[in-house]
Structure formats: structure tokens, C-alpha cells
Amino acid sequence: MKVLGIYGSPRRNGNSSILLTEALRGAAVLGATIKTISVAEVDISGCTECGGCDKTGKCIIEDDMQAIYPRLRDANVILLASSIFFYGFPSQLKALIDRSQAEWNRRRISKNPEELKRYDSGKGYLLAVGATRGKNLFEGVKLTAHYFFDALDLSYEGGLFRAKIEEKGDIRNYPEILIEAYEFGKKIVDEPSK
């Protein structure tokens, strides 16, 4: 199984990154092949809504996203991890998600309406960490993640969500959350085969 972890926070080694690292460690223990992308280390322009991918499923913007597309397609499981900015994803991650419009067009072109109702490429999960206590803190990112994974032909399978964690590295003060993330990583490797 090929698992792709996407570090979605612009802050390196922050709370969502620590959580993702633990989940990937759990997946690796069960034999998954792990690859990662960090939005803090790539140069991705926003989608310009030019329509260049509408008929081809290929984005015409030349930047680091061109190397990311094949990695998105190759994964059986994607673990998307992010901090929360104003109840949404950071702009760096949102650029990657928005540029996946090309992948949606690729999927739409290659499948008929009945085939679009199923997911043939695997599963997607979201790990999110936010500082506030708001009851709707994760609702926006859950919806965005669902449609991001849909564009990639992956079913959205939920994830782990932790509020009231703000300062860099604070999540290390909650070893039970780190254990949960590690076990979650193991679970996602077992689940697709069931």
C-alpha cells in the first residue's frame, strides 16, 4: 500500500505535522510505503480558473504542482494534515487543493456519470489541529477535504480533529493524542483491505 502524507501547514514541525508524522509512523509499521509532500517546501500558484484543464484534465500552469499530480494519483491512501486558519485551510494548502481542479476534470473526462458515483483510487483522511474552542472549527475543512478527495477519486473517510492546541509543539503535551495518531495510521493500512 502506498500512503501519501501531505503536510499542509506552512509552519514546519508544528502540531499538525507532529500528528501526521505519528500517523505515518503507524502506517509504516504495517508495511505501507510512505511518501510525503510539505506545502512549506513547494512553490504552487493559485488556480487562475483559466479553463485550460477543462477538456484535457491537465493543468497548464508550470510550477511544483506538475510534480505533485503524479504523486497524488499514485497513492492508495492520502493523509492530509493541517492547522486551521480562520476556520479553513492555510493558503499554501488551499492552492494545492484548488489546483486539483485539473484532477477533477481528468476524473470527469475518464468516467461516465455512473462510474463517478464510486471511488476507484483509494481513501483519504484528514488530520486537523486548531487553537480555538468553536464547535464548528473543523466543519469547513471537512467539507473541503471531502471534495478534494472526490476530485482525486478517493473516498473521504473522516479523520482526527483536535481543538485548543495552539503553541508550536503543544501537542507533545498530550501523549494520548500522539498514541491515537499512531494507532490511526495502523488502522488506515488495515482498513482498505477489509
Q: What does this entry look like structurally?
A:
Helix 1 (15-29) crosses helix 6. The chain has one domain (2-193): Rossmann fold, CATH 3.40.50. Strand 1, helix 1 (15-29) and strand 2 (33-38) form a beta-alpha-beta unit. The protein starts with a strand and ends with a helix. It has 194 residues and is α/β, with parallel strands linked by helices. The chain is built from six helices and five strands; from the N terminus they run E-H-E-H-E-H-H-E-H-E-H. It has a five-stranded parallel β-sheet, with helices on both faces.
List the keywords.
single chain, 194 residues, alpha/beta, Rossmann fold, five-stranded parallel β-sheet, 37% helix
Describe the structure in brief:
This protein has 194 residues and is of the alpha/beta class. It is built from six helices and five strands, in the order βαβαβααβαβα. Strands 2-1-3-4-5 form a five-stranded parallel β-sheet, with helices on both faces.
Structural class of the helices, strands and pairings?
alpha/beta
CATH class bucket: Alpha Beta
Give the H and E element order.
EHEHEHHEHEH
Discrete helix count: 6
Number of domains: 1
* CATH fold label: Rossmann fold
Tell me the β content.
Answer: 15-25%
List the helices and strands and how they pair.
Blueprint: E1 2-7, H1 15-29, E2 33-38, H2 65-74, E3 77-83, H3 91-98, H4 101-110, E4 122-129, H5 139-151, E5 154-162, H6 175-190
Parallel strand pairs: 1-2, 1-3, 3-4, 4-5
Helix pairs in contact: 1-6
